[in-house]
Design a protein that fits this description.
The chain has 214 residues and is of the alpha+beta class. The chain is built from three helices and 13 strands. It is flat.
């Protein structure tokens, strides 16, 4: 049996991978990166404040983060207090204010940017050839998850199609990992940061025959 063993604390994350009871990989990641813009968290709704048209969310970094109505996936309805929420930091916290977050999550690839909560596939207006636009759009539709949209970047116009596909597949795999961690882990917690070894573990080692110990 294959096992992935994860231990995460505020100071470090440890990944151990075993196959048939033999250690095949061990990595330790020190939590020294304090930049949180772009990081994706599973938070918990603490307070709904109609007066400021937003909610305060505990994402586990000290001050509660602020989520504006316009940054909700469903702007017509606030989530309930105590409910978990998936959000991305768009502005760091300061001495006076908590971080600003959004439910409209995006991840940047070399050739595309993902969009959460939508199946929309768009192409940069700078790509003028209709045949190229259609080819890129159709490839994006084939690969994307049901609730993951794309904006295809100008750089994709002259990209090798295999490389373009690999970039979209990597973005989809990252999104699948985020969804899996959101279901698995308690809030508040950090779910995704580029180069996170937990992301690597779920992407590279986990399959149907893998036992996960956290």
């Amino acid at each position: 049996m294959n096992r992935v063993i994860l231990s995460a604390s505020t100071d470090e994350t440890i990944l151990a991978v075993t196959r048939q009871h033999k250690l095949v990989d061990l990595e330790i990641e020190q939590q020294i990166n304090t930049e949180i813009v772009g990081c994706i968290y599973k938070g918990i709704v603490k307070n709904i404040v109609p007066a400021v048209d937003g909610i305060f969310v505990d994402i586990g970094i000290g001050k509660n983060a602020f989520l504006r109505r316009k940054d909700l996936l469903n702007e017509k309805r606030f989530p309930t207090e105590g409910s978990p929420i998936l959000a991305q930091v768009i502005k760091s916290d300061t001495d006076m204010k908590g971080a600003l977050i959004t439910e409209k999550i995006s991840m940047l690839g070399k050739y595309a940017v993902t969009l959460s909560g939508t199946g929309y596939i768009g192409v940069s207006k700078k790509i003028r050839s209709e045949s190229v636009r259609e080819r890129l759009k159709e490839t994006g539709k084939e690969i994307c998850a049901e609730h993951m949209g794309l904006i295809i970047r100008t750089a994709a116009e002259n990209a090798d199609m295999d490389e373009f596909r690999k970039d979209i597949i990597r973005l989809k795999e990252n999104w699948d990992i985020i969804q899996k961690r959101f279901r698995m882990e308690k809030s508040p917690t950090l779910l995704y940061r580029e180069s996170d070894i937990i992301v690597k573990a779920l992407r590279d080692y986990v399959n149907k025959g893998t036992e996960i110990l956290i």
